[in-house]
Amino acid sequence: MSAPVVPDSHAHLLEGAHVAQLATVRPDGSPQCNPVWFSWDGAHLFLSQVATTRKLRNMRREPRVSLVVVDPNNPFHYLEVRGEVDTIEPDQGLVFLASLTERYLPPDRRAQLPVEDRVVVRIRPTALAKELGYGAG
Amino acid sequence: MSAPVVPDSHAHLLEGAHVAQLATVRPDGSPQCNPVWFSWDGAHLFLSQVATTRKLRNMRREPRVSLVVVDPNNPFHYLEVRGEVDTIEPDQGLVFLASLTERYLPPDRRAQLPVEDRVVVRIRPTALAKELGYGAG
Asked: B67: which strand partners?
């Protein structure tokens, strides 16, 4: 299946340091939604996860996810990326966490992050949605 | 099952006019996530939906949902409400849509909303999550 193309009008939502909402499916089949940091290399989304979180366990069991980024300056402008987790790898030396921290936090706050056992979750987009006028509906 | 109590520290997230993220489950079992407007009466969450949307169809089939509200001034402060859709009723005279529009939009923008066949979705909370430090994980 060919990868969906992110339109130029929405690329900034993936390129900027925005907080995304990640929807996963729990073992009982109900949905879970959590704020996450992410990065985007033009083809995949990457998350840093503590190795023991519920949402990581959800993704190991059901790799299909949905990730939404809303423009903080215009809540009618948003992008939903549906995709599949294709790899979960150890974050050796916490190199990826350091890059994400640099993306999201000013220098004076970076030292506050705990050092934990972490993995890098890679998500392959399979579909996009960006309909307007969601607001009240 | 008794209703979970929203802590005072997080009540403003439900009381304010914030855009929430709604996670639903699609017929194929994968998750979907969409921005939504909502209201909160202290016991239930209410959404206005166009009668034909995919997320409404998802909720009719699988009533369990998750709704996240993030503090726009502090992305580490958020509330996830998991719950179940307990009623879906016609929005007679679009009375509920009008109240939501008043909650979210300044007067000069309210006229821009399309008039459509709409329903009111009532969600009964079953569990809350508000863990900190989600940021990078």
From this structure: B22, B81
This complex has an ipTM of 0.84
Assign 3-state DSSP to chain A and report helix, strand, coil percentages, each to 5.
Answer: 25, 40, 35
Cα separation, A23 vs B82, in Å, equals: 12
Phi, psi dihedrals of residue A94, rounded to the nearest 5°: 55, 35
Interatomic CA distance for residues B116 and B126, integer angstroms: 31
List, for residues A111-132, the tens digit of each pLDDT value: 666 667 899 999 999 999 886 5
Residues in chain B with CB shorter than 8 Å from the CB of A65 are: 30-31
pTM above 0.90, yes or no: no
Question: Which amino acid is residue A88, in one-letter code?
Answer: I
**Cβ–Cβ contact A106 with B under 8 A:** no
- CA distance linking residue A136 with residue B118, whole number of Å: 10
